[in-house]
């Protein structure tokens, strides 16, 4: 969209806000001059506690307010799928839609990996945390369209042209729902909230939060405790702190936009979508942040098993993993995959260290652990950890290995899990994980990122930010292992 067209659509949206009762403070300015999209800027200082916008719930586009509400309810669609149908339907209505001026301001689709050309996504995301996820997303959405959207069109209840509900249009609508929707309340469910979705995200740097109006002016502290900008689904949310029963109408209550951190004149005003790493940000919203401290790298259990098999045997791997499970341990799970997280600073997940400890145990110590394994399992996780700490201490050759009562159990455990064999295993796993990115190295990616333009090479830029961040974490993992390993130091990027 060129600058002139963007300015025209922004003017139309402002008229629409006025007509629908959406109020935006004079201290804020909607700016359409940025090629990356509309954003919000302060034209006067704003201060903590200021009310800078109110949005009637009836102005939000939801499965309840759309003209397709009855067919959506009859088809028993819910959540983001129902909202995607509402967005497609209102777009199909064009100028007849009550939300036309709002929808015209939005891009046709957000540039999330879901809608990147398949070959390009595969090339740009190779090795990253999104590599498999995006492929799975496409499969799931195709199934949703086939099982839910296609029958809805065939029924004729929506009275729209089938092309307006094509698979491609569904993907486009899903990108908007993924990146812009809010969980409003029990009655409306997920919805598109005009004005609220124009604020860009900044991790730990937001200026505004959203909440619903309350008749009790003394309940601000309680509301702040209850409100959240990210639901369990990682969706932005607007909590309803009132005692309205589930399913009741709350259209008479405006959504409020409250300043939680001062902003000076000329500053961009940010919201937050929650504390997310770059993989989640790119996946859902189509952008990344440099030096995002919430970034992680995952190492699959399958990769650990593969490494174990290459060093020992398949039988050894099965037996050691089985003992690890018998102690009550498991990794993180997502979409039928089990994995371990490596944190931003290169610290491996405790469960991985315990598994590597068990894998690399000498046969005699392994036999002892088998004999006492059942006795180590406590009623709570921390009880099991404490018991395993005692066992590790008893078999450790590390001098002066004393427990500090003030240390966290997890930290204490990690102090005892830095044997030469475990650190060597971590280095090997880091190499295996690194190999997934291809033949180039960290320095190559850093140079490409330096030369990349975020405006003209958006997909390349954000995929590089993600990959560079992940590879730096693997570098820190190597440093973490090498600093405590007695093996000969190896050269790493």
Automatic annotation (TrEMBL):
It comes from the Eukaryota. Residues 215-232 have a biased composition (Acidic residues). It is an enzyme of class 2 (transferase). The keyword Methyltransferase applies. GO terms for biological process: methylation. Its main location: nucleus. Residues 237-247 have a biased composition (Polar residues). Gene3D superfamilies: set domain protein methyltransferase, domain 1. Residues 209-254 are annotated as: Disordered. It is found in: Nucleus. Keywords: Methyltransferase, Nucleus, S-adenosyl-L-methionine, Transferase. GO terms for cellular component: nucleus. GO terms for molecular function: protein-lysine N-methyltransferase activity. Its EC number is 2.1.1.-. Protein-lysine N-methyltransferase. Belongs to the class V-like SAM-binding methyltransferase superfamily. Histone-lysine methyltransferase family. SETD6 subfamily. This is N-lysine methyltransferase. It comes from Urochloa decumbens.
